[in-house]
């Protein structure tokens, strides 16, 4: 007896909690699924009118639309049969049609709320490191933009003067000085184009046991020589002497990554006579490497001609971990303090070079993100994805200022022109598209290659563009009229990357070789 009383007291003390709104909605959705299954089983035995007019009258009596978009007469009869079967099952289960209609309205309202939530733009609070980085980028970009625009204004002013003088057929020596800048740039461009048209294979070097997948070059001399850096599918990094056709190897780092290296970038620091390399791999990591010449006392080596070649050291500076999928590309900000990476996890990230810490995780792409590039002023960043979308971001505010659509397939590479108002992109469709950042629309479309384009790069003057492709060629293009200047053939298979030096072009290929064109 005592045990029974104790059990009843425990039962009275049990607290029953009500279901949450989401749980109730899931429960109603589950009941609706069961109701539809039972209605489908019973629909075959339900009699419905056969005449169209009788079907319409029956639907009106039930409070349903007479015909939905795209329905034929057979579909209308099937919809009426399912509704009658559903009402019959609900009647047997003690439910009412009004209750079903209420549930339907609740589901519709829930879907509308979810759609509204998806459309709301959400912002997250920036970290102190990100705020500090944006302040530094803004200060740097304002100064660079001012210098670039001053030169552009002077060039346009002199160009207008020259055009008016030529139209008046008045060409004295004093007046020629008024547009000396235009003449100097035009003469340098003509000379450069003439040289580029005569480019040929000057040297070739066996680079690795596996295909060389990425290449990067320095714009300035480091240790008295132009550096060429390559990364391969074996995870090996090598530094090469770009001043000679022999392409002597200056440094080698085996097993730099556990898997294939897919992207590489280099930034040279003239003040410390060092260069920082960034590599991206499919092992989910990116790494920073510091390259510098060794003291030239007793570490000099001689090449075949007896000339001294300084060796370099390559030391790991930082490992960048955070992406949830394989990495694709990497690029240095012109300031040199930050590096960006892209990944198959649909995001791109900005890292601090000095500390190796992540300061920005940026989503916004619905497909895998591949290409990345920075504006010469340092104000903008461009990213591309496998959905054919090109996004342009303002690094000073963190907002996407515009996006471009036009590629038929994946977009794999992006590069800002040195003129500051053009952006070039390329990818699977074999075309190079040039976008005008001022008008925010396509400026030119170049059918460049017959296969996937792996890399594009502007030269320092902005007068020509180099591209490499799986069709086995690299090509040089004039940026004044977007006509082809030269085709570089020599690789046995896919050309994986292209890099520009002061007076030469370097390419790497699937045939495991590195080639120099002059």
What does the model show?
This protein is an alpha+beta fold. It has helices at residues 2-13, 21-43, 52-62, 73-92, 97-119, 128-167, 173-177, 180-197, and strands at residues 201-206, 212-217, 227-232, 237-241, 249-253, 261-269, 274-281, 285-293, 300-302, 308-310, 312-321, 327-332, 338-343, 348-352, 358-362, 369-374, 380-385, 389-394, 399-405, 411-416, 422-427, 431-436, 441-447, 453-458, 464-469, 473-478, 484-489, 495-500, 505-509, 513-517. It has a 4-stranded antiparallel sheet, with no helix packed on it. Strands 2-3-4-5 form a 4-stranded antiparallel sheet, with no helix packed on it. Helix 3 (52-62) crosses helix 4 (73-92). The longest helix has 40 residues, at 128-167. The radius of gyration is 33 Å and the shape is elongated.
Brief summary of the model shown:
The protein has 518 residues and is of the alpha+beta class. The protein has helices at residues 2-13, 21-43, 52-62, 73-92, 97-119, 128-167, 173-177, 180-197, and strands at residues 201-206, 212-217, 227-232, 237-241, 249-253, 261-269, 274-281, 285-293, 300-302, 308-310, 312-321, 327-332, 338-343, 348-352, 358-362, 369-374, 380-385, 389-394, 399-405, 411-416, 422-427, 431-436, 441-447, 453-458, 464-469, 473-478, 484-489, 495-500, 505-509, 513-517. It is built from eight helices and 30 strands.
């Amino acid at each position: 007896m005592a045990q029974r009383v104790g059990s009843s007291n425990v039962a009275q003390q049990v607290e029953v909690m009500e279901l949450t709104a989401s749980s109730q909605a899931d429960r109603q959705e589950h009941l609706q699924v069961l109701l539809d299954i039972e209605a489908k089983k019973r629909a075959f035995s339900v009699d419905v009118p056969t005449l169209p007019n009788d079907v319409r009258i029956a639907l009106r009596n039930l409070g349903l639309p007479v015909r939905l978009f795209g329905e034929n007469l057979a579909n209308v009869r099937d919809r009426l049969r399912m509704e009658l079967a559903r009402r019959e099952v609900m009647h047997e289960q003690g439910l009412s049609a009004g209750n079903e209609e209420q549930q339907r309205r609740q589901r519709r309202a829930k879907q509308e709320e979810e759609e509204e939530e998806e459309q709301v733009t959400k912002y997250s609070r920036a970290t102190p490191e990100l705020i500090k980085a944006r302040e530094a980028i803004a200060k740097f970009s304002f100064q660079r933009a001012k210098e670039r625009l001053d030169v552009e204004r002077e060039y346009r002013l002199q160009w207008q003067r020259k055009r008016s003088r030529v139209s008046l057929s008045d060409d004295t020596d004093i007046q020629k000085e008024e547009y000396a800048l235009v003449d100097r740039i035009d003469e340098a461009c003509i000379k450069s184009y003439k040289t580029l048209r005569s480019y040929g294979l000057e040297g070739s070097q066996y680079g690795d046991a596996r295909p060389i997948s990425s290449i990067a070059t320095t714009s300035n001399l480091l240790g008295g020589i132009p550096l060429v850096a390559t990364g391969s599918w074996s995870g090996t990094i090598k530094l090469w002497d770009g001043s000679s056709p022999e392409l002597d190897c200056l440094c080698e780092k085996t097993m730099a990554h556990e898997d294939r290296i897919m992207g590489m970038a280099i930034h040279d620091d003239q003040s410390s006579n060092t260069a920082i390399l960034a590599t991206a791999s499919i092992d989910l990591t990116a790494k920073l490497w510091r390259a510098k010449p060794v003291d030239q006392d007793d570490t000099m080596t001689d090449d075949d001609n007896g000339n001294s070649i300084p060796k370099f050291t390559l030391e790991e500076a930082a490992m960048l971990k955070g992406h949830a999928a394989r990495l694709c590309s990497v690029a240095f900000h012109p300031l040199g303090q930050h590096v960006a990476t892209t990944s198959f996890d649909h995001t791109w990230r900005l890292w601090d070079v000095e500390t190796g810490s992540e300061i920005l995780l940026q989503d916004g792409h619905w497909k895998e993100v591949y290409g990345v590039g920075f504006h010469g002023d340092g104000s903008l960043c461009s990213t591309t994805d496998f959905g054919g979308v090109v996004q342009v971001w303002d690094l000073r505010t963190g907002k996407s200022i515009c996006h471009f659509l036009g590629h038929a397939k994946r977009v794999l590479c992006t590069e800002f022109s040195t003129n500051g108002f053009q952006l070039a992109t390329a990818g699977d469709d074999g075309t190079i598209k040039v976008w005008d950042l001022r008008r925010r629309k396509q400026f030119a479309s170049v059918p460049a290659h017959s296969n996937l384009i792996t890399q594009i790069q502007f030269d320092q003057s902005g007068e020509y563009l180099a591209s490499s492709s799986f069709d086995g060629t690299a090509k040089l293009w004039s940026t004044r009229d977007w006509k082809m200047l030269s085709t570089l053939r020599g690789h046995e298979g896919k050309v994986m990357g292209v890099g520009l030096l002061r007076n030469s072009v370097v390419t790497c290929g699937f045939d495991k070789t590195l080639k120099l064109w002059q």
